[in-house]
């Protein structure tokens, strides 16, 4: 339900943002929320949304390995592993933070947007840590609401036209002046975006002035702190804030101050890992925080931006294989292991598409269980291969194979057969395949290609592919023995 009628000018700008400037952000948030609402949702479904973007994946994993999210220092080398250790909601927080930042990269006024982004991320980290102090059951939702609490300001500076911005900058810094110049306030714009894009229930609640719930108060207090400290920390001026916030958190002021200082430092560290240029120093730190030489040194300078497809990377292959070994030792489920194997083939071996298909109970159909990569949803939906005992079938031969197989242009008849039997789903020039067996009987098949990017498959790719498929076989054997 709309809280107050949304001004026409705000509605017009929201349509512009939705259709032209930021279509990816609301769609991604909606997609992830829909996945999490499904009772049968799997980690691979969430991972797939993230893995579409190679640069996003790299930055998310760097953030997942930060001290803030991973204080125990567990090595997280796959999105699947991050989902295991951090949980769906926390990975959602990381993904949406990065997608929001990416959506604003084409902004017209980069410096203004950076400053607003710093305030927003600082508010989000403060809010989540305050929620934890309050033993709230909604720390991730509170983080997202605080992160988006100045979305109107972010989008205005990023995408408003020059004439409107010029008039705004010449006006007084009051809500009434904003409305006179723009036809709406930037807080109203935030509210309108929250409603139009179905962003976060808590964010919408925070606009209800009569709402005094704990979660909403945390969002407001965190936002106030981040805004008041955007240039420097005046502890005398902040004294009432600390007193009121300590009461809200059922904490002493000393405990709260310590938490707030830690949160400010963590927010700057996370900002450095988002891929934002010139992020260092955007969040001022209290003067009595003692910094070590490397406390703010992490960055993502080595993450290639704009990468459409993953390139083969032996270092990533090794790290993911180690992750899989660790997961096996932890007695993770076979489904979790398979998801990590899929991600290893996709990211480590640098494939465009990866499929794991399983035989039906009557052994007559090969159906997609998981698909990762280019057009994965359509691929999995269409992948239904009929296997008859009475006729020859290349897919039947692949299921019976004793090892991984590379089919390429040196075997034109085989390639043509794959295209025909898959009804052109695999209309490829080369393909990797390896069966997964139980008691020496096939029950599944891994397939991978680079059709979308038109890159060749070579013997080195076959070796990497085989390694991951063998890990799946070892995991299945081990977990079967363990019961």
- What is the third-level CATH name, the topology of the largest domain? Hypothetical protein af1432
Structural class: alpha+beta
Radius of gyration: 25 Å
Beta content: 5-15%
Number of continuous helical runs: 22
- Look at the structure and give the mean pLDDT: 90
Strand order of the largest sheet: 3-2-1-6-5-4
Secondary structure: helix percent: 55-70%
Total separate domains:
2
Order of helices and strands: HHHHHHHHHHHHHHHHHHEEHEHEHEEH
The named CATH superfamily of the largest domain: Hypothetical protein af1432
CATH architecture of the largest domain: Orthogonal Bundle
Query: Low-confidence segments, ≥5 residues, pLDDT <50?
Result: 300-306
The biggest beta sheet is recorded as: 6 strands, antiparallel
Summed up, what is this model?
The protein has helices spanning 8-21, 24-37, 43-51, 54-64, 79-86, 88-103, 110-133, 139-147, 151-159, 162-170, 175-182, 186-196, 201-205, 214-228, 235-248, 253-273, 314-329, 334-348, 376-382, 394-400, 412-421, 459-482; strands at 353-359, 365-373, 384-386, 405-407, 431-438, 441-449. The protein is of the alpha+beta class and 483 residues long.
């Amino acid at each position: 339900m709309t809280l107050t009628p949304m001004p026409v000018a705000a509605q017009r700008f929201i349509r512009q943002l939705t259709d032209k400037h930021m279509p990816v952000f609301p769609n991604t948030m909606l997609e992830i929320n829909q996945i999490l609402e499904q009772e049968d949702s799997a980690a691979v479904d969430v991972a797939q949304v993230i893995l579409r973007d190679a640069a996003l994946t790299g930055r998310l994993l760097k953030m997942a390995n930060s001290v803030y999210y991973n204080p125990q220092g567990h090595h997280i080398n796959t999105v699947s592993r991050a989902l295991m250790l951090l949980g769906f909601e926390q990975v959602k927080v990381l993904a949406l933070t990065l997608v929001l930042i990416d959506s604003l990269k084409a902004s017209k006024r980069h410096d203004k947007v950076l400053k607003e982004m710093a305030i927003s991320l600082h508010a989000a980290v403060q809010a989540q840590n305050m929620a934890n102090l309050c033993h709230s059951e909604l720390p991730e939702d509170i983080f997202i609401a605080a992160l988006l609490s100045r979305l109107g300001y972010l989008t205005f500076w990023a995408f408003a036209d020059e004439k409107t911005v010029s008039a705004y900058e010449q006006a007084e810094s009051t809500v009434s002046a904003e409305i006179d110049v723009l036809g709406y306030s930037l807080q109203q714009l935030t509210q309108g975006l929250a409603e139009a894009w179905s962003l976060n229930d808590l964010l919408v609640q925070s606009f209800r002035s009569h709402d005094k719930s704990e979660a909403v108060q945390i969002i407001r207090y965190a936002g106030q702190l981040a805004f008041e400290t955007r240039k420097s920390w005046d502890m005398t001026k902040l004294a009432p804030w600390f007193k009121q916030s300590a009461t809200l958190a059922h904490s002493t002021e000393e405990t709260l101050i310590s938490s707030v200082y830690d949160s400010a430092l963590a927010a700057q560290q996370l900002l450095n890992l988002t891929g934002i240029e010139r992020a260092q120093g955007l969040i001022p730190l209290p003067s009595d925080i003692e910094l070590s030489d490397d406390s703010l040194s992490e960055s993502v300078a080595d993450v290639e931006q704009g990468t459409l497809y993953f390139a083969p990377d032996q270092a990533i292959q090794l790290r993911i294989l180690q992750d899989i070994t660790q997961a096996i030792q932890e007695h993770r489920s076979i489904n979790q292991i398979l998801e990590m194997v899929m991600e290893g083939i996709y990211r480590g071996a640098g494939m465009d598409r990866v499929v794991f298909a399983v035989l039906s109970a009557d052994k007559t159909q090969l159906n997609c269980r998981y698909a990762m990569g280019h057009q994965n949803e359509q691929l999995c939906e269409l992948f239904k291969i009929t296997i008859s005992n009475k006729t020859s079938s290349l897919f039947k031969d692949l299921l019976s194979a004793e090892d991984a197989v590379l089919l390429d242009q040196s075997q034109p008849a085989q390639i043509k057969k794959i295209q025909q039997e898959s009804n052109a789903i695999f209309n490829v020039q080369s393909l990797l395949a390896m069966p997964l067996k139980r008691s020496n009987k096939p029950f599944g098949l891994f397939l991978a290609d680079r059709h979308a990017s038109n890159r060749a498959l070579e013997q080195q790719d076959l070796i990497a592919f085989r390694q991951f498929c063998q890990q799946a076989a070892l995991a299945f054997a081990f977990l079967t023995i363990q019961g």
